[in-house]
Amino acid sequence: MKKNKDPYKSHCPINFAQETFGDRWSLLIIRDLMFKNKKYYGDLLKSDEKISTNILANRLEKLEHQGLISKTMDPDNHVKYIYTLTPKGEDLMPMLIEMIQWSAKYDDKTEAPDEFIHRLEEDKLGLINTLKAELKQS
Questions:
Q1: pLDDT at 88
Q2: Dihedral sign from CA coordinates of 111, 112, 118, 122
Q3: Nearest-angstrom CA–CA distance, 99 and 85
Q4: pLDDT per residue rounded down to tens, the chain (138 residues)
C-alpha cells in the first residue's frame, strides 16, 4: 500500500507559505476579497491585472481547497456564488499590509492611496483591526 505523499517540498515556514499562495494570482485574488470588496467571480475577473477565466477558476478552487476562501450560493441569485475569506484567509492581512507598506516605500508609482499609507505608518495595528472589523460587516 502506497503512503500519502506530503504535498509540500518542506515545512520551512517560507516554503509552506510559498506553496500555499505563491503563484502569480492567488494573492491578488485575496487582495480583491480583502481590500476591494469583490465577492463574485465576475468582479474578480474585472481586476486590473486581467486574469483569464480558466486561471481564475483554478485559483479560486485552489484557495478554497487550501481553506483560505469559502464559496456560498448567493441567496438572491441562485446561479451566482459569493466568495469570502475564511478566518485563515483573513489572517493573511498583516502580511499583506506589510507588503503594501514595503511596496509603497520602493515603488514610486504605487497605487496605494496616500491616506492609507499615512494611516498605516501612524497606527498599523489600529488599521488592521479596523479593516478586519470591516471584513466581518460585509
A1: 95
A2: negative
A3: 18
A4: 556 677 777 878 888 888 888 888 999 999 999 999 999 999 999 999 999 999 999 999 999 999 999 999 999 998 999 999 999 999 999 999 999 999 999 999 999 999 999 999 999 999 999 999 998 887
Domain membership of residue 5 (yes or no) is: no
Q: With contact defined as beta carbons under 8 Å apart, do 51 and 44 qualify?
A: yes
Please indicate, yes or no, if residue 1 is contained in any of the structural domains.
Answer: no
**Separation CA 30–CA 6 (nearest Å):** 25
Collapsing DSSP to helix, strand or coil, 55 comes out as: helix
Same domain, residue pair 61 and 22: yes
Count CA within 13 A, CB hemisphere, residue 54: 0
Q: Does residue 56 share a domain with residue 37?
A: yes
Domain that holds residue 48: 11-86
Task: Write down the pLDDT at residue 3.
Answer: 60
Q: Which three cell numbers stand for residue 32?
A: 480583491
Q: CB-based contacts of 16: which residues, under 8 Å, 6+ apart? A: 8
d(CA 51, CA 103): 21
Task: Give the single-character DSSP code of 78.
Answer: E
Show the cell assigned to 123. Answer: 497606527
